[in-house]
Amino acid sequence: MEHLLLASIAMVVATMLFLIMFIKKEFSKSESQYPRPPPGPWRLPIIGCMHHFAGQIHFRAFRHLSLTYGPLMLVRIGQVNFAVASSREAAQEILKNQDPNFAARPELVVGQIVCYGCSDVAFSPYGPYWKQLRNIFHAELLGTEHIQSSASIREEETLNLIRDISTATQPINLSEKLRRMSNAIISRAAIGSRSKHQETLILVAREFTDVLGRVYAVDMFPSLKLLHVLSCAKFKLHRIRRRFDKIFDDIIKEHEVKAKMNKGRQVAEVKEDIIDALLRLKDESELQVPMTMDGIKAVILDMLVGGTENSSIVIEWAMSELMKNPKIMEKAQTEVMEELKGKNRIRETDVVELNYLKSIVKETLRLHPPATLIPRMCRKTCDVLGYEIEAGTRVLVNAWAINRDPQYWEEAESFRPERFESKPIDFKGGNFEYLPFGAGRRICPGMEFGLATVHLSLAQLLLYFDWKLPDGRKPRELDMSETYGLTVARKTELKLLATPRIPIPSTV
Ligand code: HEM
Fold first, then answer.
1. Does a structural domain hold residue 451?
2. What range does the domain containing 127 cover?
3. What digits encode the pLDDT tens for the residues 73-117?
4. Do residues 377 and 104 make contact, with C-beta atoms less than 8 angstroms apart?
């Protein structure tokens, strides 16, 4: 009996020991197999990490936090987690090595309301519809052939800008003139003519890019429905959408009238723009995913807003940096003047030779990328740099911080175009320490088009004028503060005095 009791006790002890060892082994296995979430700043109840942003622009605040929490951190804002990548390695992992898993965009209320239920290119979910739109963009507007054939539009519109500036006797608002020029270029290339709604379009586009960069309670507290009602965000967004709608309806109506007049003629005979092509494809239902009228409006929105704001912002920053760095301005003016020798004007084909000017644009995009935070979303739970990123987590690649990281850039905060003369780095998304156009599947499709506008207009501004700050102000007094939007522009409009240097040609 005693033996039996001892044997039972021994059995129980052995079983318990076995169980403890098994659980311990499994536990340590689960720890090493499934990584932990990335580290992040401490949180307060309800608002999460919002207090860390007080008084700071978001991309600067994220960089500041990354100095403590590392290249990949998890920042909770309200009820939403953001994985923020702030190093070349983290960006490469997200935008290249695991690109398909991060090729989604977050579904924001702004995309739902203003971008016609996220049916544009920029907000649409990763999948066949998005792929189809990118192909149409490439085939009808942004491919190499179209960029070459739209060179005459850029040459005309940059010359119009130069003529307009040459008539001014007072300091000019260069920011405003650049927005008008960029909008005229993209409108003529995309919809066949300057939009008669240009003024309203530019105003609403500015309002839209501004709201795009804001943190809305409706997105950060998805479950607090009362807050959605109390916040006036949705009301504001619906107002923007109505104003866009009116303009886009008009553009589409004009194209439908033109299509009726051209009925019966072969496609090759008719000079089609991208809206004509979209309307034709919609009716022919040749597409894998049918195109709706809202989808067409969303595409117009991407083209007109993306094509206007980004290019003019880059030229504005380039001119600001040149005003602050007169020696660089002088060197660039000499280069353009040399290129003019034996010709009566600078054309787009001449820009290829302007290597210093192209380095100035690269350096401008390094210090002032219009899109500071590249927004993506994680589709499936995965491991990035040893940390677990859960499906549905919003991801931000802090391109602004990476472009200025002293680990990759000597004198990172200085404007030094020469650095690109010895550094074979380009925009195409293969150098993850330099991301002005993003990278991977969702890289900017308008890169070549935007650069063509930026290069040519900057060359013309430097060739035809000498520039000064008004009221005898010194270059160091120029305010360089940034706006708080999705695309980061100058906070104050750039106002300059232009003095003609050489005669302006009368025709293109
Ligand atoms: C110099 C000017 C420009 C800059 C710096 C710029 C920058 C960017 C960046 C950083 C992205 C995000 C890429 C990513 O997620 O990896 C983007 C996306 C996009 N850009 Fe641009 N852009 C410029 C010009 C343009 C132009 C001229 C157009 C159209 C005419 C355009 C249309 C778009 C669209 C539609 C997307 C969304 C792509 C997608 O989600 O698949 N951009 N751009």
1. yes
2. 38-500
3. 999 999 999 999 999 999 999 999 999 999 999 988 889 999 999
4. yes
- One-letter amino acid at 207 equals E
Vertex 141 angle, CA 257 and 91, to 5°: 140
Domains contained in the chain, number: 1
Q: What are phi and psi of 384, to 5 degrees?
A: -125, 120
CB within 8 Å of 271: residues ≥ 6 apart = 192
Q: What is the CATH number of the domain that holds 52?
A: 1.10.630.10
Kindly give the number of the ligand 1 atom that is closest to the alpha carbon of 454: 1
Residue type at 444 in one-letter notation: C
CA distances to 250, 339, 408, 451, 493 from 197, in Å: 9, 37, 44, 25, 22
* Most ligand 1 atoms within 8 A of CB, residue of 94, 136, 186, 444 to mutate: 444
Tell me the per-residue pLDDT of 458-473, one tens digit each, with 9 for 90 and over.
999 999 999 999 999 9
Rounded-to-integer distance, Cα 363 and Cα 415, Å: 7
With tokens 């409706």, the residue in question is 218
CA of 88 to the centre of ligand 1 (A): 20
